[in-house]
Amino acid sequence: MQFSEVHGQEQVKQRLIRSVRDNRVSHAQLFFGPEGTGKLPLAIAYAQYMCCEDPGADDSCGRCPSCIKYNKLAHPDLHFVFPVVNIKQGGSNTVSDHFISSWREALADNPYITENQWYMVMGAENKQGFISRNESSEVLRKLSFKSYEAPYKVLIMWLAEKMNAQAANALLKLLEEPPDKTVFLLVSEHTDLILPTILSRTQMILIPPLDEPSIRRGLLKRFPGQEEMAEDVIRRSNGNYSLAIQLMESGEMEQEHFEEFVLLMRMCYGREIVEIRQWTERIAGWGRERLKMFLAYGLRMIRENFMLNLQQKELTYLSAREEEFSVRFSPFIHRGNVFKMVEEFDRAIEHIEANGYAKLILLDLAIRNILLLKQPAPVD
Q: Which domains does the chain have, with CATH numbers?
């Protein structure tokens, strides 16, 4: 992957390129920032550039043997670590290499892949991915060899916060005594979950949210001829290119989420307990990941309606249909209930993620919203 394939982030790209050209490549770097900003594709493009046999002023050549192998994510000196779930053939010793073919295919389709999307590729069902001590042992084994072809051996660890304690401690030892000509590129969305001792040994590089023109160029290249939908999605993605792609690809699913959210809020406002119970039984059959997506959608709608209530339309990211509903619904989302509603939706997501009983979680959420929607707005 070349830098030209990474949307936006021009300042970060130039910083990374200068580090290679000035021969100042830090042995341990941490790319951190929100989801959908391009941290992983930037790390891959950076690794390709530092190993390119004929690098240009702004990008790798894309033609040399090293670049050709990097484009296939199959260079012998490029190693990946990412969250996995245990599978039958690997048992408790399952590591990233068990999924490397699926990983390469997933990145070839979408280098801005999200954690949930990767779990779906693995068929993780209700399991949560992790990076284990076995992974660290495998990394140590690989990095103990000399590089095959490139000037650097590069390890890219995606979602480093998924390391368990044993894996983190093993990585810390590697960072303290790194093998010669080895570069560690960690990618994280939640640095607060990484050991402070690891953070202190890395050069931290913030990858900010993408600007709208960069998202627009990326979407129109991936979805040609869909300018109108792209404009709607750009406003709602809020700098998250991964979310923008999902919104473009899942128009039907998002429409269903909208309809179910509207139905839920209307039933809650009307205190239709029997209908709510029937609704929870039907929706609970969606499965954990789909339920999390729906609840996250509900959180977004609550936020948008609160902004409308505050007369801050310029800060909202609503489709035409959502806005039509929200004009009527927003008066019921105010300072007296919005924070509690957000808390209830967040709690429901946490319980679903922890494999709680979906019907009870959804029913509890609905009943609490019945009470919250009836709360009067505070008088200034």
A: 3-208 (3.40.50.300), 250-373 (1.20.272)
